[in-house]
Structures are given as C-alpha cells and as structure tokens.
Amino acid sequence: MNRSVIIIVLLFFVIQAFRIYRHSKFAKANRMVSRKRSKRIQPLYDKLRSGQPVTTTDIYDYAKNIMTREMTFKILQRNGNAAIFPNEFNTFEKAAESNLANWLEFPTELNTCPDEIEYIKRVAIGHSSENIFYYYEVFKFRVDEPHRAAKKGWILGVVGPYFNDSKPYDHPGCTFSRLSLKSNNGSAEQEAQWVHENILSWL
C-alpha cells in the first residue's frame, strides 16, 4: 500500500471518528434539552399524575409561555383534560409559535429560544381545483447579543404542513429555519415554498 493510499485511509477514519463524536455530542445535548423541558412543567405533571383537580387558571401561565405551551397541551390531551386549555392559545398561530421556539432551542439549531418572535402569515401551497392544500405558518425571529445570530437581525422560520382537517396541536413535520436567511431577503411565500420543496421531500 503506497503512502497516498495510507493517507486517504487515515483521513477517512479521522473523518468518521469526528462524525461519531459530533453526533454523540449533539445527542447528549439534545437529551439535556429534553430533560430541561420536562422540568419546566414538572409541577403540572405531578399534579395530574396524583389525580388532583386542574383548572384553566392552574395551567394558564404554562400555556402563555411559548417554551411550555405545546408540551402543556400535549400532556393535558394525554390526560383527557384538553378542554381546559385556554382558547386564546388554542390556535394554529400560537401552537406553531411554540413548536418553532422549541425546535430552535435544540443545540443543532439556534441553541436558544428567540428573544423576539413575530407571526407573519399563513401560506397555502397546493391546487385549488383538487382542494388539496399544504398550509405553512411563517414567522420571523431574532436574538440579542452575544448570540452569534444576533447580527443577522430578523430570520424566517416555517412550521407545517397543516391540512384542511388538521388541529392546531397536530405535529407539524417540517418545522425549519435556514437560520442564515434574513427576513428582508425573502418573502414568507418564498420561504414556505422552499421548505415545502426541500424539507417535506425528506420525510
């Protein structure tokens, strides 16, 4: 085996080792985020598990907070208490906002919750003649210094697709942000179309 072949083989193993290390590192970080999320609603979970009565007042602050809103609805739904979830947060906009914020918190994405997030619009992609539409909720968000993404300003994020028979807290399969795309560099329609064509096809 000549020297160049040996170097190529060694480089291959180094790259593979780095990939394994990187995957392990992010997997561990993602597990830590998941545990942190569970702790945020632990008091509510404990109350439901113990069979204590829970009212809308008890869960209002959890529903208001974008980092606990989605998980709160899910746990209430699993316990047959979804009816007490506040109507003002039981909308596609509010559900998608929470889903995006939680997705962005993962270390593989923004690694934090945005300091500001604003709803832009719903974008429908499909064929009116067949009455088949994919609906995407589009947001813009930003973070403060010293986060590395602060200098980018407002960034676009997309949540979806939803369908004609979807409910607000149905799981959207294509929550995504390119993170590098500033909101003034593309329209909501263009970004939803990009996610539809490039992310949905992976599923």
How would you characterize the overall build of this protein?
- The chain has 203 residues and is of the alpha+beta class.
- It has three domains: 1-37; 41-90; 92-203, no CATH class.
- 44% of the residues lie in helices and 15% in strands.
- The chain has six helices and three strands.
- The protein has a three-stranded antiparallel sheet with strand order 1-2-3, with helices on both faces.
- A hairpin with a 4-residue loop joins strand 1 and strand 2 (132-142).
- Helix 3 packs antiparallel against helix 4 (69-78).
- The protein starts with a helix and ends in a 5-residue tail after the last helix.
- The model is unreliable at 12-23 (pLDDT under 50).
Physical arrangement of strands within the biggest beta sheet: 1-2-3
By secondary-structure content and strand pairing, the structural class works out as alpha+beta
Share of residues in helices: 40-55%
Query: What is the number of helices?
Result: 6
User: How can the largest sheet be summarized?
Assistant: 3 strands, antiparallel
Which regions contain 5 or more consecutive residues with pLDDT less than 50? 12-23
Topology (elements, then pairings):
Elements: H1 3-40, H2 42-49, H3 56-64, H4 69-78, H5 92-105, E1 116-127, E2 132-142, E3 155-162, H6 188-198
Antiparallel strand pairs: 1-2, 2-3
Helix pairs in contact: 3-4
